[in-house]
Amino acid sequence: MTTPLIELRDVTRRYDAGPPALLDVTLTVAPGEAVAVLGPSGSGKSTLLNLIAGLDRPDEGTVTVDGVRVDGLGESGAARYRRAGVGMVFQFFNLLDDLTVADNVALPAQLAGTGRREAARRAAELLDSLGIAAQASAYPGRLSGGERQRVAVARALMNRPALLLADEPTGALDSASGADVARLLQELNADGQTLVLVTHDHDLARACTRRTVHLADGRITADVTTEAVR
Amino acid sequence: MSVLFRVVRSGMTRRRTQTLVITLATLLAVTASVLAGALLVASRAPFDHAFARQRGAQLTAQFDARRATTAQVAASARASGVTGSSGPFPTTTVTPAALGTLSVVGRADPGGAVDRLTVAQGRWARRTGEIVLAVDPEGPPVRLGRQLDFPGLPGGPTLTVVGTARSVSRTADAWVVPAQIAGLTRSGRADSYQMLYRFAHAATDAQVARDRAALAAAVPKGAFSGARSWLSVRLFATRETALYVPFLVAFGVLGLVMSALVVGNVVAGSVGTGLRRIGVLKAVGCTPGQVVRAYVAQALVPAAIGTGLGLAAGHLLAAPLLADTSAVYGSVGLGVSAGVDLAVVGGVLGVVAGTAWLSAWRAGRLRTVDALAVGRTPVTGRGRGAARLAARLPVPRPVGLGLARPFHRPARAASMVAAVVFGTAAVTFATGMAASLGEVITAKNHNAADVTVSAERPGEPGPVPPEATRVTAAEAAAVRAAIAARPGTRDQYGSVTAEARVAGVTGSVPVIAYAGDASWGGFVMVSGRWVRTAGEAVVASPFLTASGTEVGDTVTLTVNGSPVRIRIVGEVFDVGQQGLRVFTDLSTLRTADPDLHPTDHSVRLTRGTDVAGYVKHLNAVLKPLGVSATDTKSVNGSDGAVALDTLAATLTLILTAVAGLGVLGGVVLDTHERIRDLGIHKALGMTPRQTVTLVIASVVLPGLAGGALGVPLGLAVHGVVMPAMGDSAGLRLPDVVLDVYRAPELLLLTLSGTALAILGALLPAGWAARVRTATALRTE
């Protein structure tokens, strides 16, 4: 049996005195797998993603990614973990408005200590492969939504992460741009990139993944393959 | 509780740092302003009130009794411009046992048209054998009934102290009935007459000089032997408190400007980062006027607290300084005048309200929909060029990102620069002032000698009359020979103090006469040169002011009743005896006092000499001669400098703290405003250490710029304030006191701006490092 890339065991996360955002969640994701996390607002999708990304820590249970106990990392360790092992794509792109496209993409590598030239070379390569090389010197504010999300994907892939996390990557896009981004994620997964996709959009989940995990009130209510949903 | 009150309170609670910054800024401005205002008023007002009450003498003139009769002197009251006079009063100078030289005036009563004396203790002298001493606030208390002996006078008279009196014009050290004067002179008659005048015009030195010339012309030639202007008396009387005024005014102005800057920055920042809040307030029905009032109140409430605390601090700090002034004039409970309090409170709160209103006006004018739409994240194109350039710098990426930050918000960066400018200027000025005061102490003590030899004077404390320490020529020569014979001696000179009357100065002045070259003795020249030959002398600026002379003039001293002409060849920096000492060569006084020989000897040793061993061996030789050597340097009168340094250090500390808080406030606003960017950085793998680096790097350029601008400003303030302080004390300062900054210090001071900015940024940097990535990202 293959060692899972992501392994959550009995994870519980509570905020203040309210009901738990996640309760006793156990989940494994194999390397190269694409998993969509579906559920209504407040079901715990973003909390699950934050725990995997090391942006948050569980109150109970363990989170292990690529052999690293993410729940035990300090702030610096979590930052280094994200830098090396995780690429993140957000609904609203989260590009830095005052940096050019190329500088945005190069940033994770430079934070990891990669030299400026090497980072620029890798960024150019990614922008080229994602079809937005012509926009390298532009600022994000001048790009279309689809282009911005491509830039965000390029930035997420900059450090060749083992895991790509996408949080509603098409939520802020029109349908054409959304389909474009969905194709891109599909292609990446086809090339072996492990993908965890949080979305409300069943069509996107079907397009990009073979497995869907359904959350409701912080619990996994279903964990099925995409074919079953179809 | 009104809605507006709730809005103000919640705004202040949300912005605790900015509230603290405003409180501290106003606290500083008010403290320095109250001190400056109180001392400015106190330095002049009590003197002026007492002078008016006593109808003080605007000119205290001396007339040579050998050259003019009392009738001729009395007739001078009809000279041009004279509006009132008292006298003539017979005068003489005496030296009672165990007291210094006294200028004694014979007056039948303390009243009169001019210089109406206030009897402070006891009563006025009614008969011969009684004496009234002038109140000396710095001297020991006077015991009524004390007997003063005059062993050097014919018959060895003894006078009983029956009272003390206060003359704001300082017309004498003591008073007796006129008939007593003859018994206090060797010749049996008065040496001179004193006349006290008031004039139609005597507000300036030039007017007083004209009045003086008119008097000199009204009496026989040579009879007018000198006069003291009330302006120089006032200068001496007010110098202690007046000394503080220039630098307190400087700190007050710095504090006030900084308060305005900090308040403006904080309120503008609150508006900038609180756009959504403003939008919500307006959406729920707040009028533009209410929004403006809310934001002005958010600045005024902490400013009012700072003002209250500043008033208290200013009163506390002013109390000991004003107490000194009270003692001088005999006034009770001299406090900070209500006018000063009102002016300062009104001024500071007015500045705060005006600055806050200007910044809040923007909030009031914002359209609700715009305020809600803009939200927290700034969308501007500013700073992209800097960001692009910084991305190509060969520095770690967080440093590059931080360096580009100030260019996104130039106005906020400018306010940070301004805060650092004023903080650095304050540090530069305070450092320079401390160095200058150190130089003043060094210069005024004239103690460059490694070893000093003087007579052993056991017994009575207090001033020792020169007669008590007289030595013979043989004794002086023996001491000199013993010093010369001691291995390690490089140079030596002797010195002795004599008393002299000086044309142009009321009372006696000490004359320090030197045997040998004393130019290496630690005398700092303001202008001219040191004494080279007999007949030359150097004096300090108070002497020149009091006598109306300048370097190059010739002055006649009266020593032992004999005239001695001296040419002033230089102005030395000296504050001893109110700066009225005359420094000359012993040979200058040879004809007037042939028996005057050095009582003290100053020795400079050759390099590498063991000073302690030298003193020990020299003392073994000197003991039979009744003198002793010491390597302890006399350091006098540094209390004022310590007080000034302490006050300056306190105000500088507050000012730099406010500057640091100004930076902190700016960084906090910037961090709040760019919290989303921070979240993105962290999500991409920026570690807490890298976050701290980014935030600190963001203040490096403002810090450098502030330091580079603040140092010249501090130098300029020092260049203006120090001479002004010298003027307040009636002194011209030598170059060595003003040229105290060296290149390495200036470099350090410039870098202190960066250090100040970094200190101010540390707290928000820590906060930025700790903020949770998920929280930061959610703020979008």
Write the layout of secondary structure elements.
The complex is a heterodimer of chains A (230) and B (780).
Chain A: E1 6-13, E2 22-29, E3 34-38, H1 45-53, E4 60-65, E5 68-69, H2 75-85, E6 86-89, H3 101-111, H4 116-129, H5 145-157, E7 163-167, H6 175-190, E8 194-199, H7 202-208, E9 211-216, E10 219-225, H8 226-229
Parallel strand pairs in A: 3-8, 3-9, 6-7, 7-8
Antiparallel strand pairs in A: 1-2, 1-4, 4-5, 9-10
Chain B: H1 3-14, H2 16-53, E1 59-64, H3 70-75, E2 82-94, E3 102-106, E4 118-122, E5 130-134, E6 147-149, E7 158-166, E8 174-176, H4 178-181, E9 192-199, H5 205-218, E10 224-229, H6 230-242, H7 245-273, H8 275-283, H9 288-329, H10 338-365, H11 368-374, H12 384-391, H13 397-404, H14 410-445, E11 451-455, H15 473-485, E12 489-502, E13 505-515, E14 525-528, E15 536-539, H16 541-547, E16 554-559, E17 562-572, E18 582-585, E19 600-605, H17 611-622, E20 627-630, H18 639-673, H19 675-683, H20 688-728, H21 735-738, H22 743-770, H23 773-778
Parallel strand pairs in B: 3-8, 5-7, 13-18, 15-17
Antiparallel strand pairs in B: 1-9, 1-10, 2-3, 2-9, 4-7, 5-8, 6-7, 11-19, 11-20, 12-13, 12-16, 12-19, 14-17, 15-18, 16-17
Task: Give your account of this protein's structure.
The complex is a heterodimer of chains A (230) and B (780). The two termini of chain A are 27 Å apart. Chain A is an alpha/beta fold and 230 residues long. Chain A is built from eight helices and ten strands. In chain A, the strands form two sheets. Chain A has a six-stranded mixed sheet, with helices on both faces. A four-stranded antiparallel sheet of chain A has the order 2-1-4-5, covered by helices on one side. Chain A has a single domain, classed as P-loop containing nucleotide triphosphate hydrolases (Rossmann fold). The two termini of chain B are 33 Å apart. Chain B is α+β, with helices and mostly antiparallel strands. In chain B, the strands form two sheets. In chain B, strands 1, 2, 3, 4, 5, 6, 7, 8, 9 and 10 form a ten-stranded mixed sheet that branches. A six-stranded mixed beta barrel of chain B has the order 12-13-18-15-17-16. Chain B has four domains: 232 residues, no CATH class; 133 residues, no CATH class; 211 residues, no CATH class; 180 residues, no CATH class. Helices cover 52% and strands 17% of the residues of chain B. In chain B, α2 runs parallel beside α9, α9 packs antiparallel against α10 and α12 runs antiparallel to α13. At the A-B interface, α2 and α3 of A face α12, α13, α19, α20 and α23 of B.
